[in-house]
Amino acid sequence: MKKTENKKIVDKEEIKSLVEFHKSKGYTVVFTNGCFDILHAGHITYLAAAAEQGDVLVVGLNSDASVKKIKGDKRPVVEEAHRAKVLAALACVDYVVLFDEPDPENLIMNITPDILVKGADWTEDRIIGAGFVRQSGGKVERIDLVPQISTTTIIDRIVMRYGC
Predict the structure, then answer these.
(1) What pTM was computed for the model?
(2) Which CB contacts under 8 angstroms, 24+ apart, belong to 2-8?
(3) I need a labelling partner for 114 at 20 to 30 A (CA). Which of 6, 23, 49, 105 fits?
């Protein structure tokens, strides 16, 4: 049975019990996170590759307040409810959970994923939660990014073309 978008968007308490349920069935739980502001082909490629690492993909999504702390007052461009809905519509994503902190460390410690995935632009020593996941018996995977595509380059292109 396919999960509808609204069943895929869960809170921190729900995701903990859902992950426990999936693990009890022998499924491998993969976790990744990000802002995913202005979803683009690079994000899609990345999320599909993350999903291939296991059976259940959980995406931690930075809340609007969290994105502002990381990226500045002009971001996010797309509000959190809309970003969550778009991510939940992707077949490769099983669950989306919002978090308010600047990083997903508490969320990672709450769900203890089997595999933590980040982009290859992150060095091992900078991946938040990597040590915890490894100590818990899990592994960390880095996935190559699609070159020359990012939300920032898309925004810059829009500003250049339309003189905003």
Answers:
(1) 0.92
(2) 3/94, 5/85, 5/88, 5/89, 6/88, 8/88, 8/93, 8/94, 8/95, 8/96
(3) 6
